[in-house]
Structure formats: C-alpha cells, structure tokens
Specification:
The chain is mostly helical. The chain is built from 14 helices and no strands. The protein starts with a helix and ends with a helix.
C-alpha cells in the first residue's frame, strides 16, 4: 500500500475515533467537570512516563511553557463546554455545534495573524446561519441551553486551534500535549475546589465509568493524536482538512446507530446539520482553488 493511501486510512480512522468521544461523553455518567478532569489526568499520566516527553520538556523555554499552558486552559474549557453540551442536550447536538469551529476559525485566524479577511471565509460564515437556525428550531426547548454551550465550545476550539497553529512547531508534539493537558488538569482541579459540589471530581470513577474513561483517554485521545502525527507527514493540508471536517458527521451517525438519538430530533435538525457541514466542506475546496489560481499566475 502506498504511503499516502495508508495515511488517508489512518487519518480517517483517527477522525472516527474522535467521533466516538461524543458517544462516550453521553454514556459516562460523571458530570462534565469530573469527566474532563479524569480524561486529561489519564493522558498526562501516560505521557509523563515517556522519557522522550521529558527530554522535550527540558528543552522548552519557560516563555513557551507558559504559552502552551495558557492554550491548555482553553483546551480544558473547550472540553468542559463540549461535554456540558452533551449533558444538557445530546451527542448529536454537541457534535453539530463543533462543526461551527471552522467558521469561527475563518474569523479568528485573520485577527491573530493580522491579515485581511477573505471574502470566501466570511461567505461561509453567512452560509451556516440558515443551518444553525434549523438546528435551533428543531430541538426541544430543553436542549437549547446545550446548543448555546456547544457554540461556546466551538468558539474555544477555533481559538486554541489558531494559537496552536502558530506555536506547535516550536516544540515536540507530545511534550506540547503534556504541557497543555497538564495545565488543564491543574486549572480544572482548582476550579473544582470552588465549584459547588466540585470536590466530588477527585473521587476515582468506578465500574463502567472507569472503563469508559480509559477508552476515552487512551483509545479516543492519545492513540488518534499519535497516529494522526504519523499520517500528516504524508498528507496535504487539504486532504487532512477534509478528513477532519468529517468528525461531526461520524459523531451524528454514531449517535443515531448507538444511542437512537433520531427519536429526539426531527428532519429539520438533520437538514440544518447538512447545511452546516456542507458549508464547512466548501471552505477547503475554495482555498485549494484559490491556491491553484495563485500558483498558475
């Protein structure tokens, strides 16, 4: 099998595993704060046992450690709001909200990079509005708070994604992950101390929750992260973006198959999902066409 073909299969497998995170979040009975804290703690526990992670940490300047730690807090808040959206609504709603992240990224990245806005990116932002309206109008009123929290989660993932893109190449990826998730563990631990009933976060999960958390942390977080690093060496940015954009699609399909969530959501919801995902897929296609036109000049 050719290296690029193998990489395509690898990245789609990673995206499929990421799609399961919403399903596991629904199945785990822990509150969102405890779920995210234990997920991050398990991954950090594995990473600190790897000698090459420590070598990367020792080579990292203090300024860079602080920058990655700040991004890690954003990651923690993203996961907290993502699983909060699942608990307040369901896995399909939370995954659909995350599909808005590329739209937010199209608006945030020019500000961080201090470049002009691209009319194509702004157009995609406008194009998803009908889809969001369909989704909001189609869900039961009790789930709408979950949509609001999910949209905040999408904004956070766009923000830390843009910041990571600027800094991630300055240190070893696994060491960066260790710093970011370690900072998230500390931040959420402090938050638990002041959150009403938050000290229950530190009680070790038992039974089914414990096993599902291990699957979430190892099979759906650490494994796809490491495998995606291997795959991205042989993929173009365009191919990788198209694959990653499938994550909400996989999550919604898995929620239908495994959680029977289509009983809670009507046709208008799935029409809204189709509009949002379709608009998100248009972005890399337009970017590729624009890059090809520039190269031809």
């Amino acid at each position: 099998m050719r290296a690029d073909t193998r990489a395509q299969w690898q990245i789609h497998f990673c995206v499929l595993l990421w799609g399961f995170t919403a399903i596991l979040g629904k199945l785990i009975s822990l509150p969102a704060l405890a779920l995210v804290w234990w997920r991050m703690l398990i991954v950090v526990g594995v990473l600190v046992a790897l000698p090459w992670v420590w070598r990367g940490l020792r080579a990292m300047p203090a300024r860079l450690v602080l920058a990655y730690a700040g991004i890690g807090i954003l990651v923690a808040l993203h996961w907290l709001t993502f699983y909060g959206a699942i608990k307040l609504a369901n896995a399909s709603v939370a995954a659909t909200c995350i599909a808005l992240a590329p739209v937010f990224l199209a608006l945030i990245e020019p500000l961080l990079a201090r470049r002009r806005f691209d009319w194509r990116e702004l157009g995609i932002g406008v194009a998803v509005v009908p889809g969001v309206a369909c989704v909001v109008g189609a869900v039961p009123s009790g789930m709408r708070l979950g949509i609001a929290v999910g949209i905040v989660s999408a904004l956070l993932v766009a923000l830390f994604g843009a910041l990571n893109k600027r800094l991630v190449e300055q240190a070893a990826p696994l060491s960066v992950t260790c710093v970011e998730l370690g900072a998230g563990v500390v931040f959420l631990g402090l938050l638990a101390l002041v959150w009403p009933g938050g000290t229950a976060t530190f009680t070790p999960p038992a039974g089914t929750d414990a096993w599902l958390l291990l699957v979430l942390a190892l099979a759906c977080t650490l494994l796809p992260f490491a495998l995606s690093l291997v795959a991205l060496r042989h993929l173009s940015a365009f191919s990788a973006q198209l694959a990653v954009n499938l994550e909400p699609v996989y999550a919604v399909v898995l929620a239908i198959v495994l959680l029977d969530e289509q009983r809670e959501l009507g046709a208008a919801f799935y029409a809204g999902v189709a509009i949002i995902v379709g608009a998100v897929f248009v972005h890399p296609l337009l970017a590729r066409r624009a890059a090809a036109g520039t190269a031809a000049q």
